[in-house]
Amino acid sequence: MALRCVGLGEVLWDLLPSGRQLGGAPANFAYHAAALGAEGRVVSRVGADEPGRDLLARLHGLGLPVDATAVDPEAPTGTVSVAMEAGGHPHYTIHEGVAWDRLVAGPAERAAVAAADAVCFGSLAQRTPGARAAIAALLDATPATALRIFDVNLRQHYHSAELIRASLGRANALKLNETELPVLGAQLGLPAGERDALAALAAGHRLRAVIHTRGERGCLALVDGSWVEHPGVRVAVADTVGAGDAFTAAFALGLLRGWAPAVIVERATAVAAFVCTQRGATPALPPALTAPFRG
Which of 20, 195, 266, 267 is the most exposed place for a label (fewest CB within 10 A)? Predict the structure, then answer.
């Protein structure tokens, strides 16, 4: 049976200079997990509008079930305006009052997370009290054996120390990037050194894995008490949208399959590097990358 991976939170249209693309870190995670051989599913909400219908059709076309992606009768489908900065790095303007801000823990949503082997969630989708409560309830409904990955995903002003602590309390794995670690360090009073900060996060919140991605400088991870580091892969960058989510999906599958940490990091880095060479967050992955995950 395929591993079941749920992206819990926002699903939206990224409005890129080149056109709109499916977006939202949880949706990207679910897509890449499916592309690597898992059963991916998005637990989110879209509007009862044309962008919402198009988004559901896009998810279906990517092979992602939409039974836990509800249609909100009032709020519009989420959108994010994306401008590209130097080096292909995205700058986001995230619009408020949208459907995923009204996420609920209904029967379909609970059924999806109750069957999950891995659930990935972040801080952005918790920006409203209602959605935050729903995400907490859904995380509490996951199996005790499930991998619960908190992908920090700090955006604009939609985060706080209280939210970060509460999310870490429901996670057993953490993924954060090079710009997010200093923010968490200040919010949580972490030690100054990179390894000391990651070790403090792991010990303080009983995390099985802490993954720190560092862009072109690769990554550093603490997995089951062991350190593993990768220098990164240099590629011609089209844009970096979705690369971190691809890394998280690959890392989660490797962890669930019991691979050695060095193997997980090597393969996750290769997947993320390829995504950087493509436009948008959900490019088709070549068989050479997906084969090890399906074997």
Answer: 195
Each residue of 166-205: pLDDT tens digit? Answer: 999 999 999 999 999 999 999 999 999 999 999 999 999 9
SS3 category, 79: strand
Cα 246 from chain centre: 8
Model pTM score: 0.95
Q: Give the list of residues 6+ apart from residue 197 with CB closer than 8 angstroms, or none.
A: 181, 184, 185, 190, 191
Q: Which two tokens stand for residue 250?
A: 């690959």
CATH classification for the domain delimited by 4-294, as one of 3.40.50.1100, 3.30.110.70, 3.40.250.10, 3.40.1190.20: 3.40.1190.20
For residues 151 and 235, give the distance between their C-alpha atoms in angstroms, rounded to a whole number.
24
- pLDDT score of 166: 97
Look up residue 238 and give its two tokens.
């089209």
User: Which tokens is 230 given?
Assistant: 């990768």
